[in-house]
Specification:
Distance between the termini: 45 Å
Strand order of the largest sheet: 4-5-6
CATH topology of the largest domain: Arc Repressor Mutant, subunit A
Shape: elongated
Radius of gyration: 18 Å
Oligomer: single chain
């Protein structure tokens, strides 16, 4: 078995398994210690790889439980109007706590020509730009 060299390589390997469906939504990934042992890496390196995937919104990580592949939600489409500017940003720690926003989920911003800013949670909505 080829061993990844570093956290980025391990994150890439795990991401490929998730993207290909080898590890399906709702299934667990190996624990940090199991990944470290399997690939001859430190636990810190395995933790960093899992952090990358968590920040990308691919997995959920809770203390005492193995990392789990997120089940993709059904997203509601938001169609921008002519003149709207689309952007995104990370929620603040306070917003995450107050609104229960998981790590790796961004705010989608729709800035209207009037200057009004409408925020959408990235785990519930997606922008659909008409053809």
């Amino acid at each position: 078995m080829t061993h990844p060299a570093g956290y980025r390589a391990l994150a890439d390997l795990l991401r490929e398994r998730i993207d290909s469906g080898t590890v399906a939504p709702g299934q667990n990934l190996p624990s940090e210690s199991a990944l470290a042992q399997t690939y001859g890496l430190s636990i810190t390196t395995a933790r960093r790889a899992l952090t990358v995937l968590r920040n990308e919104g691919l997995i959920d990580v809770r203390p005492g439980y193995p990392p789990r592949v997120r089940v993709p939600p059904d997203l509601e489409d938001v169609t921008p109007q002519p003149g709207d500017v689309l952007h995104y940003r990370q929620p603040t720690a306070r917003e995450r706590d107050e609104q229960g926003i998981p790590d790796g989920v961004v705010w989608l911003l729709r800035i209207r020509p009037t200057g009004e800013v409408v925020e959408y949670r990235g785990d519930r909505y997606r922008f659909r730009v008409p053809d």
